[in-house]
Q: What sequence folds into this?
């Protein structure tokens, strides 16, 4: 989300782990819709999606955008995984400026929208290019709108990530994933007391056990194709052994030690649109170097071995069709490539 973590961002990186975790609600919840009812109509090239490849909440939008073929319609800006106390910055770009928005910090788009706004600076963020103003940082709604409101701009063969007939089940499954897994790892990692940590950690692994049981008999979480529910679970699973197991003390067992979830995660990683958006270098450097309250030395571990992400998973035996009646996305656009797992 924000820097991934809500309120602590306003106090600087050393604040992480110094107070109980609380996920901030999105302060800017306008929607970009087909009918423009919030004043922001869907329009190719008008908006810029600002993300960090380190952030699981932003990674949802990156995956959805790629699966749906919205790369040209919704250009993307990628921030430096290492924040300073002003949060996300464009130091990966020449001169430290986003080449389209002309700003050094995402915070400038927030200030253009609402000077002195409360809360932190979060990704994913959609910015209106003509005005330079933030439109939304509602990470929960954004991907749903990409799947539905942006439909006229989807590529030919784009999957239906939020099929109407399955929405209630997708929402139910995603709610449990959000509470206990997506959010639960943060409650464990930023806990300030043993009981608080233990409760969060129990919740994480209790939910993972239920998900493992569910996925033992089906290839995807809901229906027989990839949906929004799979995207939301994947962005936590792909970070689990690299950061959450050690850095956030979610160490009852590793992802690789759960035969079902490890195979499921590899299946998605090897599906175009998932693994080709994952940058393990950005992920590891962000968590270990930004969360100074948890890791004051800022040392980034050498492990884990990432080559396993490319090994056979055998999930095809469960059936299912990743893209339904559609097709995989095309090649990764120039400038958006990431190193494959196991390679620098």
A:
């Amino acid at each position: 989300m924000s820097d991934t973590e809500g309120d602590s961002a306003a106090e600087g990186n050393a604040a992480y782990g110094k107070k109980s975790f609380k996920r901030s609600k999105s302060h800017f919840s306008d929607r970009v819709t087909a009918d423009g009812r919030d004043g922001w109509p869907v329009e190719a090239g008008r908006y810029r999606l600002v993300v960090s490849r380190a952030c699981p909440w932003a990674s949802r939008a990156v995956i959805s955008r790629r699966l749906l073929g919205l790369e040209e319609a919704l250009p993307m800006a990628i921030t430096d995984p290492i924040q300073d106390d002003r949060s996300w910055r464009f130091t990966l770009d020449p001169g430290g400026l986003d080449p389209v928005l002309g700003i050094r910090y995402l915070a400038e788009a927030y200030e253009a929208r609402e000077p002195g706004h409360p809360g932190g600076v979060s990704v994913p963020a959609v910015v209106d290019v003509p005005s330079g103003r933030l439109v939304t940082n509602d990470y929960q709604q954004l991907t749903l709108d990409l799947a539905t409101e942006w439909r006229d701009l989807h590529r030919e063969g784009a999957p239906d990530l939020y099929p109407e007939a399955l929405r209630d089940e997708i929402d139910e499954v995603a709610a449990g994933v959000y509470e206990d897994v997506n959010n639960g790892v943060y409650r464990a990692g930023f806990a300030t007391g043993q009981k608080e940590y233990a409760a969060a950690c129990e919740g994480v692994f209790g939910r993972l056990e239920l998900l493992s049981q569910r996925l033992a008999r089906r290839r995807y979480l809901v229906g027989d194709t990839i949906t929004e529910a799979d995207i939301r679970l994947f962005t936590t699973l792909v970070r689990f052994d690299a950061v959450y197991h050690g850095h956030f003390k979610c160490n009852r067992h590793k992802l690789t030690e759960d035969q079902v979830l490890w195979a499921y995660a590899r299946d998605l990683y090897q599906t175009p649109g998932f693994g080709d958006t994952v940058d393990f270098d950005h992920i590891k450097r962000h968590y270990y170097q930004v969360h100074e309250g948890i890791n004051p030395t800022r040392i980034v571990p050498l492990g884990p071995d990432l080559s396993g992400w490319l090994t056979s998973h055998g999930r095809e035996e469960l059936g299912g069709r990743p893209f339904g009646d559609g097709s995989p996305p095309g090649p990764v656009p120039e400038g958006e490539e990431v190193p494959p797992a196991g390679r620098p």
